[in-house]
Amino acid sequence: MERRASIERETSESSVRVELNLDGTGQSDISTTVPFYDHMLTALSKHSLIDMRIAASGDTEVDTHHTVEDTAICIGAAIRQALGDKRGIRRFADATVPLDEALARAVVDISGRPYLVAEGEPEALAYHRIGGNFTGSMARHVFEAIAFNAGICIHIDLIRGRDPHHIVEAEFKALARALRGAVEIDPRIDSIPSTKGSL
């Protein structure tokens, strides 16, 4: 049985629709009107094996912030919905991913308790515009919005990196690989993976 979800969000600042399948093959159809973000979300889908169909638009003439963050909110909400009661999932996973000189690690706990720790990025990254309209600081906003709306604990550490594009892409790919492992069904588990009996 495939674990699917569909989320829509309409505000005065953006319009977002997200459909995903946790049991996919990494197929994606993504259009957010922010090209670098499309690139990152395509990588997130590809390397997590989560199929994603995302259509978003917003007041990018003001800034891309609203569209980027609102899309991440919907991704997180869709992950939470698709996970259901989390029965049988592996729950914990980690991944370390290189991209040329950049190396990033992500650790995920599908805990039901949202939390984000993101460390190691150079201060200048926050102010760098990648692809013209994606500010480096937005990467943290994306991870935070996914964590809080999915109910996931995420730790992301940039171990090293120089090029802003490489840094953010390594972070997204590390998160993707960690999510892939954490949401995966373990055939040996027929219960909710918590001593409390719920997540």
By CATH reckoning, the class would read Alpha Beta
Query: Total number of β-strand segments?
Result: 10
Q: Which segments are poorly predicted (pLDDT under 50) over 5 or more consecutive residues?
A: none
Helix content: 25-40%
The CATH topology is Ribosomal Protein S5, domain 2
Strand order, main sheet: write it out: 1-2-4-3
Global Rg: 16 Å
* Helix-strand pattern: EEEHEHEEEEEHEH
> What would the principal axes of the Cα set say about the shape?
globular
Domains, number: 1
CATH superfamily: Imidazole glycerol phosphate dehydratase, domain 1
Which sheet architecture does the biggest sheet show? 4 strands, mixed
What's the tally of helices?
A: 4
Distance between the termini: 20 Å
Q: What is the architecture at the second tier of CATH? A: 2-Layer Sandwich
Helix-and-strand structural type: alpha+beta
**Strand residue percentage:** 25-35%
EC number: 4.2.1.19
GO molecular function: imidazoleglycerol-phosphate dehydratase activity
Subcellular location: Cytoplasm
Main location: cytoplasm
